[in-house]
Write a structure and sequence with these properties.
Layout (H helix, E strand, L loop, with lengths): L5 E5 L19 H10 L8 E3 L5 H4 L5 H13 L4 H7 L14 H16 L4 E5 L20 H11 L5 E5 L6 H7 L5 E8 L17 E6 L5 H19 L3 E5 L17 H11 L5 E5 L6 H16 L9 H8 L15 H4 L12 H13 L4
Parallel strand pairs: 1-2, 1-3, 3-8, 4-5, 4-7, 5-6, 7-8
Bound molecules: zinc ion.
Length: 374
Amino acid sequence: MKGGFTGFIGSEIYRGSSYGAWHPLRVPRVSTVMDLTRTLGWLGSESYITSPRAKPAALSHWHDPSYLAALVKAEAEQQVSTETRDRFGLGTHSNPVYAEIFRRPATGAGGSILAGELLAQGGVIHHPAGGTHHGMPARANGFCYLNDPVLGILSLRRNGIRRIVYIDIDAHHPDGVEMGLAGDPETLMISVHEERRWPFTGDLGEDAGGSAVNLPVPRGLNDTEMALIRETLILPLVDRFAPEAIVLQCGADAVEEDPLSQLSLSNNAHWEIVAALRPLAPRYLVLGGGGYNPWSVGRLWTGVWAVLNGIEIPDRLPPEGEAVLRAIAWDGHRLGRNPPTHWFTTLRDAPRDGAIRSELRDRLSFLRQREGLG
Ligand SMILES: [Zn+2]
């Protein structure tokens, strides 16, 4: 693989897979991105990589073998004992037993592990099924059964890459990744997440032994505020760290229409970060993450692939692209009843600019001062 390679890691396992009729992850996400990018002629077979399913031995680079055995058993038996539920967090409302409870996360993790191998020689990989940033070594957490970002970073390490920056712009704090990287002087984690929201970690002062920069942001975060965060915090920190690889968790739940959080970005904010980080390292892995409005997720991540490939995003989708978005159903949610037309006909949201609030400026100054950025 040459340094200019741009690949997409996907799998058919995500199509039709659901955490259950009432779970936020009952909606299609990765399959929409695969269908839409192909329909638009943006994803040829030369760029598409089928995600392998990681075996327990590969997953045990970070996860506890007893937990992995419980996960495999839960899939086989389609139920768990009370003891397994209490010990490993499996079979709860958040982390239910479902048909592909081992195979689906093991495929996501296999994709991130493979990305670490493929990127050894340089390049860009988009792996939208990755980004399960809450997974713990021996416990399911926050819809995440495994932690593919940590496994991907460890894979980069095994392939000779030392200095790695992990950036997370999901609405939720990446508690699992922070724990996995804590105290490691060769990694830098930067997270922007909604304040006072689950998992309630990632306070402004929390630096994980010097390896993490956490910026909790107020409800209603707008594009103007995110641009300031990008220009005065994220890009200067990444530039100074001079990473050999960048891993971006590009969760899609910080947009206005997401049902699980209360930030107000447009997808332009995400795409601008995706584009701005690209020249800062020779290796770039862009993962997915949260995102519970199926139209927002499909449009945002399809746009990520366009940005990574320098493809111009059309103002209006051609009819066949629109048909992919019109075929999505979001049962059991009021936003699914009468979606606005632009969720079908466009990829790009209208910008959501706004005032920059003083508490955000204060937090940015605090972090810039602490990190020696002046
Ligand atoms: Zn999230």
